[in-house]
Design brief:
Helix 2 runs antiparallel to helix 3 and helix 3 runs antiparallel to helix 4. The protein has one domain: Transferase(Phosphotransferase), domain 1 (Orthogonal Bundle), CATH 1.10.510.10. It is mostly helical.
Length: about 110
């Protein structure tokens, strides 16, 4: 189990309390994306791999699209797997943010990259 990228699902699975689902990957990706946009992994350090997963508050994401990105990250980091969206549910919202960023970049600079 990745110590700094633990998920509530992985902890429950390791404790033999629940089965593991692909939504655990969504949570881990949320941790990585959060660190990418805020320079901080919100997963609090613990002494034991089987401790509950606790998160610090997510820092604001800078930029005009920051609030939308932060909201998507928060959805990915919902502790209860049955309330957390699956990967398929997140593709369109993330693609929408990407397209808006590309469009804005093109408007401002006349090019995407």
């Amino acid at each position: 189990m990745p110590f700094l990228y633990r998920t509530p699902d992985l902890v429950s699975y390791a404790r033999q309390e629940a089965d593991l689902t692909a939504k655990s990957d969504v949570f881990q990706l949320g941790l990585v994306i959060c660190e990418l946009f805020t320079c901080r992994n919100p997963c609090k350090r613990s002494r034991n791999l089987l401790d509950n997963v606790d998160l610090e508050s997510i820092l604001d994401v800078p930029g005009v699209h920051g609030p939308r990105i932060k909201l998507l990250i928060e959805e990915m980091l919902i502790p209860e797997f049955n309330r957390r969206p699956n990967a398929g549910d997140l593709i369109d919202p993330w693609e929408g943010v990407f397209r808006e960023v590309v469009s804005l970049s093109h408007q401002l600079e006349g090019r995407v990259i």
